[in-house]
Design brief:
heterodimer, A: mainly alpha, MetI-like fold, flat, B: mainly alpha, transmembrane helix (chain A), transmembrane (chain A)
Chain lengths: 223, 223
């Protein structure tokens, strides 16, 4: 295959790919923002909430972790508007699904991090006579966040990758643009490889950052 | 809200296609799970091998499949493998190829983490007993690696079950595809998508219960 011709061909479609990438990043970012907040809230509720709230939170997490994202997307695109009897808008449905999914998977990361704090830390707080208003923000929270960061970052990569599914409901993300161009030009190899590479470069750099963070910070602090 | 009248007769009337789809989903999951269990260990051994080129190939393979969306992999393999190799297999086999390689990459990482957690004293013992590298791998490393990796391997398999829904996008008649087709034919997306989601959920939940059980067992065994 002629590399120069392939690159020239890709260059002609750079704008379409950029728009797609922009949309992918936008959906991922909004999903992350809402998802992380929701995930933290849910993990706290599951730890200390009212029993009824605990059950609701657990069911929510299990449903979103136990079903494919694709069916979640289809459900929020086609079923929820029909049930509510109103239009929700494509972007809203997309962002809602991604946020709820991210909330479910990140709540598990927060929960694991909360659990992983050794009981001697709590004992030390008691021995030092620290009240909860001091021990929680200064002892528990920093360790939880530090420890949750690696899994949360890999959750972010997961969300970024799963966001490719929104192409199946016709949202113009990177995957959708790639497929459209491939179908229109009948040259799938160049364009699909380029699409895969764009995903790879972004996901790979985040994954490397996670490894670096784990090696340099967490091991040094013996967390 | 509330004006929607649920009518689940559409499910009972179309029970056969749904079950046919479920059977395809289960076949895909089972075949790819086996490929992943075996292939993952092989790739993991390559990553830890002393021969550098083997290591490079294995690492590149793992990173490529872990850092791109599964949807991109499936579509890439569907469009590009026939072009590159001039072969065209049944879509079902293409799906097995894509999903099998995907889970192989994820399982390889699971095995690697498990092997790294085997204490070095075991390696020393093997050397002291004069075991050949092959014997050491098969009788000492493999059983422990599999045991330690079981929770993550099972979690990956649950992920695989959900990833198989992606093959619906390339028109393989799995559960998701049958659901999609029925939803368009019968104009009853709510009942159908809810049922399909429930089936996936009902398959995932027992598996994740087993994961929890394994983790507790392992922890008490190794403690």
């Amino acid at each position: 295959m002629n590399i120069t011709a392939a690159l020239g061909f890709l260059w002609d479609y750079r704008l379409a790919l950029f728009i797609g990438l922009g949309n992918t990043l936008y959906f991922t970012a909004v999903g992350l923002a809402f998802g992380l907040a929701l995930g933290f809230l849910v993990s706290v509720v599951r730890q200390v909430g009212h029993p009824v709230l605990k059950v609701i939170a657990t069911v929510y997490v299990e449903i979103f972790r136990g079903t494919p994202v694709l069916i979640q997307l289809f459900w929020f695109f086609f079923c929820l508007p029909a049930l509510l009897g109103m239009e929700l808008g494509n972007v809203f449905s997309t962002v809602l699904t991604l946020s709820l999914y991210m909330g479910a998977i990140s709540s598990e990361s927060f929960r694991a991090a909360l659990k992983a704090i050794g009981s001697e830390q709590r004992d030390a707080c008691v021995a030092l006579g620290l009240p909860a208003r001091v021990s929680v923000p200064y002892v528990i929270l920093p360790q939880t966040v530090m420890r949750a960061v690696p899994t949360l970052l890999s959750n972010c990569v997961t969300l970024f990758k799963e966001s490719a599914l929104v192409s199946a409901v016709g949202m113009a993300d990177l995957m959708y643009q790639g497929q459209m161009i491939a179908d229109a030009t009948a040259r799938p190899i160049e364009i699909l490889t380029a699409t895969a590479l764009i995903y790879f470069v972004i996901a790979f750099s985040v994954t490397r950052t996670v490894t670096f963070y784990e090696r340099s910070y967490l091991s040094r602090m013996r967390l | 809200m509330g004006r929607y009248t649920w009518d689940f007769s559409v499910i009972t009337a179309n029970w056969d296609p749904l079950m046919a789809g479920l059977s395809v989903t289960l076949q895909l999951t089972a075949i790819c799970a086996v490929i992943g269990l075996v292939g993952g260990f092989v790739v993991c051994q390559m990553v830890m091998s002393r021969i550098a080129p083997l290591r490079w190939v294995a690492v590149a393979f793992i990173e490529l499949f872990r850092c791109t969306p599964a949807l991109v992999q499936i579509i890439w393999i569907f469009y590009c493998v026939p072009f590159f190799f001039g072969v065209f297999y049944d879509p079902f086999y293409m799906a097995i190829l894509a999903l099998g390689m995907n889970i192989t990459a994820f399982n390889a990482e699971a095995y690697r983490a498990a092997i790294q957690s085997i204490p070095s004293s075991h390696y020393d013992a093997c050397t002291a007993l004069g075991m050949s590298p092959l014997k050491k791998t098969i009788y000492v490393i493999l059983p422990q690696a599999v045991l330690m990796a079981i929770p993550v391997l099972l979690t990956n398999t649950i992920g695989l079950l959900q990833q198989t829904s992606l093959v619906a996008i390339v028109a393989i008649a799995d559960l998701m595809y049958e659901g999609k087709t029925l939803a368009t034919q019968t104009y009853r997306p709510i009942e159908i998508y809810t049922t399909v989601a429930f089936i996936y959920f009902a398959l995932s939940v027992p598996l994740s219960q087993v994961v929890g059980l394994c983790e507790r067992r392992l922890r008490s065994r190794l403690a």
